[in-house]
Amino acid sequence: MPDRFCSDIAREGAVDIHGSATEATHWLCIEHPSPWAARELSSGSLPVSLVRKIDRWEAARPGLRVQAIRREVRQFDREGEVTVLLASSERGTRHLRRIGMPSLESVAELDVPALLTEDPSTGPGRRLNEPVVLTCTNGKRDACCALKGRVFHEAMAEVQPAAAWQATHLGGHRFAPTAVVLPFGHQYGWLAAADAPDLWQDAVRGQVWQLDRYRGWTAQPRPAQAAAIALRQRMEAVAADDVAVTSVRERSSDAWQVDLTCGDRPFRARVQRRTGRALPKSCGGAPKPAVRYDVTQLQATRPA
């Protein structure tokens, strides 16, 4: 056990949470309730045939992120069934599908790239009309996620048991407990058990929860995440689709121009990547500079 959690050090060290979300437009979550290794998907615990298919699916569908999920260790959510969750977090194609498969080996039989683009009311499984909340609890990867993540997951399970899943590494130990709401792709950090009821209510409404704990929308690159959050703050916009990113242009290796809208109003942001002081990136890890994305300019523009 570390003397101090890396997430506590990061929060006290004023690490910027905005624009820190994992980048993923599509999600494949496979129920695997074994005790997880630090890098579970490559640990050898999954069938070789499934691992090979995952590699093909990731190549065929850029932006696909694969997670192992579970309710509890050594306990399937439904006896005799492996739960598979498929989600698209892209604006305009957002959906969430649940499929029950008879075994881990049989998951390799799915055509995941096709299912991610199909209407979930057709094909195998069923559409989920309420979101799910994945909380990182992978203790072999980081102590923060083991202890703090578990506390938040249990609180979420009390609020809505059907929605709460534990997940392997979601990215960002410094922001533990960290969780992502699917299918929206809204990722949060530095969560507490008391946050679960309000976060869930906003998730059901399709709204972004508190911006001071909002890491960003995973379907966008991090500079765009930071720009969108800055616009939400200015316009007090909370609905998932209130803000849309229309283009991201790299002006240099550390600077971007982001065009975005709030309602029918166009805006342009300039974003600069900067590094802060070195802090532990994970519990017990060597200090590394904290990266942040500063929105240096945000102004309304006229439609072209």
What features would you highlight for this structure?
Glutaredoxin, four-stranded antiparallel β-sheet, ten-stranded mixed β-sheet
Characterise the protein shown here.
The chain has helices at 6-12, 48-60, 104-107, 112-115, 143-159, 196-204, 222-235; strands spanning 26-31, 64-70, 82-88, 95-101, 126-127, 132-136, 164-167, 179-182, 186-188, 214-217, 243-252, 255-262, 265-280, 287-300. With 304 residues, the chain is of the alpha+beta class. The chain has a single domain (1-220), classed as 3-Layer(aba) Sandwich (Glutaredoxin). It has a 10-stranded mixed β-sheet with strand order 5-4-3-1-2-7-6-8-9-10. Strands 11-12-13-14 form a 4-stranded antiparallel β-sheet. The longest helix has 17 residues, at 143-159.
List the helices and strands and how they pair.
Blueprint: H1 6-12, E1 26-31, H2 48-60, E2 64-70, E3 82-88, E4 95-101, H3 104-107, H4 112-115, E5 126-127, E6 132-136, H5 143-159, E7 164-167, E8 179-182, E9 186-188, H6 196-204, E10 214-217, H7 222-235, E11 243-252, E12 255-262, E13 265-280, E14 287-300
| The CATH top-level class label | Alpha Beta
> For the CA atoms, what is the radius of gyration?
19 Å
Question: Which CATH architecture?
Answer: 3-Layer(aba) Sandwich
Tell me, what's the shape?
globular
Domain tally = 1
Q: How are the strands ordered across the major sheet?
A: 5-4-3-1-2-7-6-8-9-10
Which residues sit in consecutive blocks of at least 5 with pLDDT less than 50? none
The helix content, as a percent range, equals 10-25%
Task: State the separation between the terminal residues, measured CA to CA.
Answer: 56 Å
Helix run count: 7
Overall mean pLDDT stands at 94
CATH homology-level superfamily: Glutaredoxin
Largest sheet: 10 strands, mixed
Q: Hey, roughly how much beta strand do the residues contain?
A: 25-35%
SSE string, helices as H and strands as E: HEHEEEHHEEHEEEHEHEEEE
**What fold name goes in the CATH topology slot?**
Glutaredoxin
Total strands: the figure is 14
